[in-house]
Amino acid sequence: MSETPTQLRNVLLHDEQGIAQCILPRTSLLDLKSLHTLSGRVLMPMPDNEIMRASRMKKLTAVGQSMQFFTLPTYVDSKLSGSAELMVEDEGLTLGELRDTLHQQGMHIRHLAIAVPEEQLVSDLPETSQDSQRIADSIKQFTSLRIRQRLDETLEIPPLSPTAERIMQLRANPNASVSELTSIVEADPSLAAQVVSWASSPYYAAPGKIRSVQDAIVRVLGFDLVSNLAVGLVLGRSVDLPKDQSYGFTPYWLQAVYCSTAVESLARAIPVSERPQQGLIYLAGLLHNFGYLILAHTFPPHFTLICRYIEANPEISHVAVENHLIGISREQISAWLMQAWNMPEEISAALRYQQDASYTGDHSTYANLIFIAMRLLRRHGIGDAPPESIPDELYARLGLTAERCEAIIENIVNSDDIALIADQMAV
Hints:
- By secondary structure, this protein is α/β, with parallel strands linked by helices.
- The chain folds into two domains: 5-120, YbaK protein, CATH 3.90.960; 128-157 and 239-425, Hypothetical protein af1432.
- The protein has 21 helices and seven strands.
- The chain has helices spanning 32-39, 48-56, 95-104, 131-142, 151-154, 162-171, 178-186, 189-200, 213-221, 223-237, 252-267, 278-286, 290-298, 300-312, 318-326, 330-340, 345-353, 364-378, 392-397, 402-413, 417-425; strands at 8-15, 18-25, 29-30, 44-45, 74-77, 109-112, 115-116.
- The strands form two sheets. Strands 4-1-2-5-6 form a five-stranded mixed sheet. Strands 3-7 form a two-stranded antiparallel sheet.
- Helix 11 packs across helix 18.
- The longest helix has 16 residues, at 252-267.
- The chain is elongated and about 80 Å long.
- Mean pLDDT is 85; it is low at 1-6 and 145-151.
- GO terms for molecular function: aminoacyl-tRNA deacylase activity.
- This is Putative signal transduction protein.
């Protein structure tokens, strides 16, 4: 018997028949497909606003003094069927007492195999050499796309845009000039407008009005930031933003801007000898969730299901959810695509290993900084990282302290300008 009240969690769901609740171990994944099959109901997670609305309309009646459990039709994971004495809340309520109360209120209770135990969830990534085959197998199994000889054709992702290619070539040229970068950016009116808007934002507090792309580069942003900002914007526009998304999570561009700003600021706190390239770490942050767009593009029906699973399992890594549903993660897809586009190795490593706190391989600093940034941002309700702790060893490996990093993120979160910048990028 365990006395830890947080061992169980309750998920509120609804369908045309009304509201129901599912009780399962806190670290297990609620398997919506199994719930649908076994219950005969197409129950979907309730967004917070719907829960609040149901509370106002008195459709939710708490069990006793409970803050988690309600007098509703209830589905209990079958693994808990012999756990009547399990404590479910601080007040001492046991699972057996909860079930008895629900029975007395005439509520229907069923024990069903609706949860996947934590030990069966896969969050670890395979060897990099296996990515192409894993992606191809997943596409073949879960989409109607015909497997072609080349995986990039199968994914139906457009090639790296001419604008991005020209900028990446320019970045690799040690003799590149501001005028060359200016001409590339100005050739894309939308991109040029966004660069000028970015430089004009209160976040940079530039003196005087920004009148041109060159002005933005020379006086405010600098060559590296503009070149990487432009690449991130162009790649982000290469795939449409999905119409569906997980309720309660940060919109794509807002999360991208927070992450890029955070990792760039954290990088400046690293000892100079270990510091990553400022431009590349910024680009890595901007593209960190690019795989989210690729998932939506490549697996449309399954992407919607992924969103529902993430809503039902907010404390479980999306890596485990995606592996459970389609056998591949957004990190693998995006890292593979960066390699196919001949993007810098630092970017590919950052995207692939950003969820692995123990990664110490090539270009690990880039991935490690994203790991730290997204988990600290999640504490402020930003982003989709699982709410897990950051190992002290990771801070030490980068020459950082938890206190310093938390203060940096606090300053970023308290800035009102990040959202304005993100709105400009989403246009």
